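[recover] target loaded
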């Protein structure tokens, strides 16, 4: 797995393609999942499909398993049989990254007690109008950082009495992860383009077919 994912970052042509195409594709994802100018939560699934499509493009359909059981919430895809988690974050600087969504504080605490990193992470930092990145955070890096700072510093629980957004990797842990010497990064300029987009066009085209 290490050599496999590293090959993405060592492939100069693919790096250029990611730098060029990823902002455009993520912009399309937002347009497809927006209503009245607001982007819906379902955009996350579309972004995930874009990254999985990148893996399929690089490694082939036969090596990418996409039908992951729902009982494995931390795993989004398997590459050559090994699990990968795909995460996206937005903003000027990387903040907490979601591990699981839950509105139950007891389940959140139980998750924290049992949690230990178990898959590589592909992390996309979206920063429209600025600089972000595409990261590969190896499993070994996550384990090392987790063991160093401890679960209470690594995991951020939702605050009681608030509208919980789930359990997150804390900002402190995330900065440790992306700045680690083993983590690989492709720097990306997140510039939006002028795109004429009609979310209904492809469905209309299907209706027009005989």
């Amino acid at each position: 797995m290490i050599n496999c994912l590293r090959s993405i970052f060592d492939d100069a042509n693919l790096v250029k393609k990611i730098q060029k195409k990823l902002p455009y594709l993520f912009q399309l994802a937002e347009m497809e999942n927006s209503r009245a100018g607001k982007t819906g939560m379902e955009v996350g699934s579309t972004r995930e499909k874009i990254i999985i499509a990148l893996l399929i493009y690089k490694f082939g359909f036969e090596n990418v398993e996409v039908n992951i059981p729902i009982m494995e919430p931390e795993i989004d895809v398997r590459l050559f049989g090994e699990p990968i988690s795909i995460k996206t974050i937005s903003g000027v600087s990387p903040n907490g990254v979601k591990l699981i969504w839950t509105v139950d504080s007891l389940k959140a605490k139980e998750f924290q007690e049992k949690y230990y990193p178990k898959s590589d992470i592909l992390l996309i930092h979206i920063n429209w109008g600025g600089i972000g990145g595409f990261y590969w955070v190896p499993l070994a890096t996550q384990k090392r950082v987790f063991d160093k700072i401890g679960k209470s510093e690594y995991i951020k629980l939702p605050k009681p009495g608030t509208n919980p957004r789930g359990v997150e990797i804390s900002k402190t842990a995330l900065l440790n992860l992306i700045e680690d010497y083993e983590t690989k990064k492709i720097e990306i300029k997140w510039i939006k383009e002028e795109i004429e987009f009609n979310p209904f066009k492809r469905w209309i085209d299907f209706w027009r077919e005989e």
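[recover] notes: Residues 12-32 form the longest helix (21 residues).
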